[in-house]
Write a structure and sequence with these properties.
single chain; alpha/beta; Rossmann fold; six-stranded mixed sheet; four-stranded antiparallel sheet; 7 helices; binds adenosine-5'-triphosphate; binds magnesium ion
């Protein structure tokens, strides 16, 4: 469902990575590991059209994405992608429930449907009772879970997640990984997850390590 062919990225003259190729099936869980600074976050941003690439081609559900304009990318993100950023990007002026429901709001869903789905996601991420809070009143791990709930609320085809369990205790992290499993099984969501956590990589179907010259089979760490 996702295919990358020889993606390359530079920052000015400085190469980040090249020859990054990958095929991801519906419902597949791929863990992406690699040293700090090797370009994992950059690669996730590139797959979501948030960062331009310098070479290579990418497809989602058979559609080549290279020709999309800004509006096309925005629509694709809204309808088919979920993104958990390394820095969360939870909107500080909205409540927890409004943050989680935002993707559905943008898709024009009805208020009672949004409320029901948000309640389900808050429960699944262990945030029940916190829907009325503002983000400033949450811990780091709670914020991370708001970001995860928001990324899955609209049942995306592809979830791109950058260290989504980094701030969580082992029990809460396991619960989040269960949630990803459920999305895979029930909605066929494919998961591309950047992680250094052994426990997260152990749950993946495959682990790939990003090197400056491409992806190779790898272990976490
Ligand atoms: N705007 C920028 N201009 C120049 N270089 C940049 C810019 N943004 C990122 N970089 C560089 O690109 C490289 C890849 O960064 P990226 O954030 O993708 O790494 P990462 O693998 O996600 O690292 P980490 O594991 O620490 O999160 C780094 O060497 C970084 O310094
Ligand atoms: Mg990163």
């Amino acid at each position: 469902m996702l295919e990358l062919q020889a993606l390359a990225k530079r920052h000015g003259e400085v190469p980040v990575f090249r020859e990054v190729s990958l095929r991801l099936e519906a419902g597949e869980f791929l863990a992406l590991v690699g040293d700090s600074g090797v370009g994992k976050s950059t690669l996730l941003h590139a797959v979501a059209g948030l960062e331009p690439i310098d070479a290579g081609r990418l497809w989602l559900d058979g559609e080549e994405l290279g020709g999309l304009d800004e509006a096309g990318w925005a629509r694709l993100r809204r309808e088919r992608l979920g993104f958990v950023f390394q820095a969360f990007h939870v909107l500080p002026q909205l409540t927890v429930a409004e943050n989680v429901g935002l993707p559905l709001q943008l898709l024009g869903q009805a208020g009672d449907r949004i409320r029901a789905r948000v309640a389900e996601m808050l429960e699944a991420t262990g945030l029940d009772g916190l829907g009325g809070r503002m983000p400033a009143q949450l811990s780091g791990g709670q914020l991370q879970r708001v970001a995860i709930a928001r990324a899955l609320v609209h049942r995306p085809r592809l979830l791109l997640a950058d260290e989504p369990t980094g701030n969580l205790d082992p029990g809460t992290a396991a619960r989040i990984l269960d949630l990803l499993d459920a999305a895979r099984r029930r909605e066929g969501t494919a998961v591309l997850l950047v992680t250094h956590a052994e426990a997260a990589a152990a749950r993946a179907d495959r682990v790939l390590r990003l090197h400056p010259d491409g992806l190779r089979p790898g272990r976490s760490g």
